Amino acid sequence: MAKLNHNIKDPVNCFVPHSPPIIKGSTSGPLQGLTFTVKDLYDIADYKTGNGNPTWLETHEPAANTAAIVQSCLNAGATMIGKVICDEFFYSFIGENAHYGTPLNSAAPGKIPGGSSSGSVASVAGGICDFSLGSDTGGSVRIPAAFCGLYGLRPTYGRLNLHGATAMAPSFDTAGWFARDLDVFLKVGNVLLDRHSATAEIEKVRVAEFAFDFSDDEVSIPLQKWIESDQCNLSLQSPVTELPDEIILDNAREAFRIIQAREVWQTFGSWIEKTKPTFGPGVKERMDIAKTVTDEERDAQILYKKKVTAAFQEMVPLGTVLALPVTASLPVDINTDPEILNTYRAKTLSLVCLASLSGLPQISIPVTHSNGIPVSLGLIGWADGDEALLSLASNLMQR
Question: Among 162, 166, 293, 297, which residue has the fewest nearby CB atoms (within 10 Å)?
Fold first, then answer.
């Protein structure tokens, strides 16, 4: 692929300082003429991957190969215009990076963009590119997509090729992508999703009333009004009023947190002990906690993860979709007090962890606003039912 000079304006502070130059895609293909950015966890041949941390960047060599998902987009004709900021080691969903700054939320100025794919979402919401490649371990596509009013998908676990992507917590890690335009979003899905689809007609859409009850009114009320309006053509049946007795949102969040923490330390711990890097606020504290989590604690929570998986496979069988708020709250102001952020983060994580724990696909669809801020509907589908979610989004938004 030909490399061009990087001469692109950055009004939303999304590009990393070490971004590669523009890499032109193939001259033909389904994504021909589209531009995209890449979260700084995906390798680009001959350039370094930073993972949101300057010390990692300094202590690692340039990549030998380009990540498979990036190469797929290039082969399909899209042009990569640069690498973009992410939260340090992807260990946050706020979107603030102490080393590179906070990408701007063009859809809600002054509010956080969401992370860890903050540069990805900002580059698309700001109109710099047509789509962007992010990743989602515990919400890092779904949350920023919701905060910035974009389409985003966390695919079924294992559906997208992660070769050449930095691991975080491998039992949860997925790739994902963002787009403003639904047609673009669908085209990218057709290129990236593997061929292991579990095809079925959607026969039932169930409203997760437990999730609406759990969310803040400024999220749940506008969403409920939209669902009840003529704009919504979902065939709603059999609402889920509450989760099975053995599944509690706080416990699910804790299971995810502990398993993720143990895997994060297994991934990065030896390097951290050796190099002693400087972390920004929040990430440092989470890394310190991750260091203390034992295999025994993780194993106990894996048993709970299996309960959540079984419950959601029963709740969302082939042909059924679950509708719920993507986030429990609206985006807060940039530079919100860390103590407030701890509670704020825990509330939304209680919802987004459900798809992460169960490995099911979840799409984020911008459908309404609350006080001028985007609010998105989340749809969780059955395992390998990603294409059905894309089709449902198309039918829902192209009326």
Answer: 297
Buried/exposed code over 374-386 (b: 16+ C-beta within 10 A; e: otherwise): bbbbbbbbbbbbb
Per residue in 132-159, pLDDT (tens digit) is 999 999 999 999 999 999 999 999 999 9
| Stated pTM of the model | 0.97
Sign of the CA dihedral with 376 first, then 381, 384, and 389 last:
negative
pLDDT tens-digit profile of 217-240? 999 999 999 999 999 999 899 999
Superfamily designation of domain 3-192: Amidase signature (AS) domain (3.90.1300.10)
Break the chain into its structural domains and give their ranges: 3-192
Please count the residues of the chain: 399
Distance (Å, rounded) from C-alpha 42 to C-alpha 250? 32
140 is catalytic: yes
- Please pick, among 19, 106, 116, 117, the residue that the annotation labels catalytic: 116
Q: Is 116 a catalytic residue?
A: yes
Candidates 357, 345, 350; CA nearest to 301 is: 357
